[in-house]
Amino acid sequence: MTRLRIAYLAGSQDDAMPRPWLADALAAFGDVTGFLFERRRRTSFHTTRFLPPRRFGAGLPGHDAAIPSLGEALRMGEAAGTPWQRLSEPAALIRHIMNARRAQRLFAALHRLRPSLIVVDGAVLAPLFPTLRSLGCPLVWAPDRRGSLYHAAQAEALPEGWLASWHGAAAAAHAEGEALAAPLLDQLWLTGDAAEEHFADLVPAARRHAVGGSAEGMASAMRAMSLPARPAPPPAPSRVPDAEQLSFNPLTRLAWWRLSLRDAQDARISLLDSHGATLPAATVTIHRRRAGAIDVEAMAVLPAGVSAEELRLDISTPRGAMPALSPAAPAVEQRAGLVALEPFGAWQELWAWSLDEKPGLHPRPEQSAILPLPARPGSGSLHRLRFALRDQGEAVTLTPPEGIGEELSHPALWTGRHPPSSARLRAMAGRHQGETAWIIGNGPSVRPEDLDALQGRVTFCFNRFHLAHGRTSLRPRYTVSADRQMIEDFGAEMVSSSGGTVFLAAKEPPALEGDYIWVRQLPVFPPLFSLRADIAVTPGGSSPYVAMQLGYFMGIRRFILYGTDFNYRFSDTGSQDPYRAATGDGNHFIKNYRGGRDWAPPSLRAISAAFLNARRVTEAAGGFIRNASRGGHLDIFERQSFESALALH
């Protein structure tokens, strides 16, 4: 179907802006070229382009430049010395935005456009209608509520004085403009904010249409003008060129794909492998921008044998599905990362992993050494780099010879001086030296009988584990929550019902009564592993990571994970709050774990980087982290059966 060429004209009398939704609705029927005339600022709609605005007294000579328009007289107030008679004429509606020279340019542009339809938004451009009529195409007027009726009512309601006189002049000018425009119209579109009865005496019923801004109403009105009455389908989503990045970390197997799409405001997107199968540990985050564009951030921890280049984005809209998108270029490999950063005398000591012999660091290191790690093919090395951080605003940047590294953009947030968050926590230093700790997740794979077997061990459980007390004899030694939503929604319940020692990790102490230990948690990325959890920890996207930092501070160097399934199912809430953007309650062995509350979707980028850092730090200390979960998809740690792990103490 041939698309219409629609000219959309809008102007403002004062600070009231035109209605962008009207231009957007017209875009369903054709290509809209917009001409906006406004005194002070330029407004852009994604369906239109505009002539530059002009100011009164600057570029409008030869048309009563010394006489203000209605809008200017209103802003000038009594100081204008207003000539009321000149404000009561239709020219007063547009004197500030139009002169003969500018009108000539406008009509020349319209001649070149050869529009199929002209739509005039608002009342102030009524004086242009005689010339617009001469262009020989259907002419539609969509008046707003600020016509003669509105100003007459204001003049009557106000006490006698300057402002009442101004509204009286505006009512007269609008009335003349309406009378001038009415016989020249093909149609009058009533959009809901202009009273139909006001125009009943000016425009016959056959030429009045209540469109309401909807496509259905416009289609009906266009049929009466013998114009194509079926809205043309909006364009399909398309990728923005040169706005795409794909990276891959071979140690965590995290693929991170970022791209931008046009005309995709209502798109539903999922991340699949090359066979169209859903990935178990994958998330897609959509950041909506103006004009129908979106930024897409897709992440997945890839199973063995699946490459980042095999990823596909499945995109569907209410208009149907589009062909799956594959990456535009090969992935860039992440070959270095920041692990830990601690003070060392007058220096800072950075631990960093690298797949290359010597990563580049800024600021320049004064000393460097390689820390021992278990020999594994392709696992790289762990470097200790000491440097002076002379400027707290200076970023700490790790740059490998090839690929990409990592950057800590605001190191002062982490390296600044902080007192211990709790004397009780500080007293726990080295408490479990030489012991093995169990990090017990709440994934669906958890079996109550397995939990029973862990009673008496050093155990860290999380959040609302106490809801499972009726199904197991296990009472954890420690309960940790670093989840802002859990603390906000169920903090008091966790403190009163968990038993043992409760740690709540947050930037500031939660305002809760009861017996808990506050752990200072600083929002740092990359998720540096803290060697002094009594000072601060980083969240790393999960409460188990905070527990590992606490355990390390207590002297633990051997960790066994259980129930960490690393498989997330949730729905997008559409919330603008990133901490309440997910909903769903099927990710845990505990029913009603989140109580129907919305929550923050998992950050696979933070979780995978954090777990790698925890593994590097514990292995450098001669320890290990092993995964004894029954199934699941967390493979960054060495697997061990639950039964054999029970033999460790």
Structural class: alpha/beta
Total count of helical runs of at least 4 residues = 16
Backbone CA Rg: 34 Å
Tell me what the CATH architecture of the largest domain is: Alpha-Beta Complex
Largest sheet: 8 strands, parallel
CATH topology group of the largest domain: sialyltransferase cstii, chain A
Principal-axis shape equals: elongated
Low-confidence stretches: 13-17, 39-65
Q: What is the total number of structural domains? A: 4
CATH class identity of the largest domain: Alpha Beta
Percent of sequence in beta strands: 15-25%
Protein name: DUF115 domain-containing protein
Organism: Rhodovarius crocodyli
Structural overview:
By secondary structure, this protein is of the alpha/beta class. It has 4 domains: 6-51 and 81-224, Rossmann fold; 243-332, Immunoglobulins (Immunoglobulin-like, Sandwich); 350-414, no CATH class; 419-647, sialyltransferase cstii, chain A. It has 16 helices and 32 strands. Strands 27-26-25-24-23-28-31-32 form an 8-stranded parallel beta sheet, with helices on both faces. A 6-stranded parallel beta sheet has the order 2-1-3-4-5-6, with helices on both faces. Strands 7, 8, 9, 11, 12 and 15 form a 6-stranded mixed beta sheet that branches. Helix 6 (148-157) runs antiparallel to helix 7 (162-181) and helix 14 (543-553) packs parallel to helix 15. The chain is elongated and about 95 Å long. Residues 13-17 and 39-65 have low confidence and may be disordered.
